[in-house]
Amino acid sequence: MNVWSAVVGGLAGTLVLTTVLRAATELRLTRIDLPFLLGTALTTSRQLAKAIGYVVHFSFGILFALGYFVLFVTLQASGPLLGAALGVAQAAFAGTALVNVLLPIVHPRMGSGFSSSKEHTLLEEPGFMMRNYGRATPLVGLVAHVLYGAIVGTFVQYGSR
Asked: Contact at 8 Å (CB) between 126 and 99?
């Protein structure tokens, strides 16, 4: 297996994941904007937050692809189905532990049950499985992550030939 195929697969998968999330936002299925959420953790400028957020989001896409690669090497198998299965696991982890629990703790501009909008302008807390951003958000996130995983798995499988 070739690590560079995982990196390229991670970039391609993140592009598709981001496009699916953006399309779902435009179709009013969700209000989630992961690059914006990530960017506002690092800057108060809403315009700059988008740019920074995309860099961070794509960096995480590469890091997760490298994690997938390690699992593929460990299992001595890769491919779109295994990648999609890992995408399901990633969506469950991202939707419950990462964004729901950890992000509100470390994000300096995200509201929580302990903060008040009278203190300063805050981003809305994601809630369980990010449902505060729309009822369809968990399903949209699942589909986007399954596609991401399938793409990474495909790139790794065919990059090793």
From this structure: yes
Please give the angle made by the CA atoms of 60, 7 and 48, to the nearest 5 degrees: 40
pLDDT, position 102 = 73
State the pLDDT at residue 152.
98
**Longest CA–CA separation in the chain, Å:** 58
Residue linked to tokens 């299965």: 85
Which residues of the chain fall short of a pLDDT of 50? none
Exposure on the CB side of residue 1, measured as CA atoms within 13 A: 23
Q: Are 61 and 14 in contact (CB under 8 A)?
A: yes
What are the residues whose beta carbons fall under 8 Å from the beta carbon of 132, sequence distance 6 or more?
Answer: 124, 125, 126
Distance of CA 101 to the CA centre of its chain: 15
Query: How far apart are alpha carbons 31 and 74 in whole angstroms?
Result: 37
Which 3 state secondary structure label does DSSP give 79?
A: coil
Helices 137-159, 80-93: crossing angle, 10 deg rounding: 140
Q: What is the pLDDT, as a whole number, of residue 156? A: 96
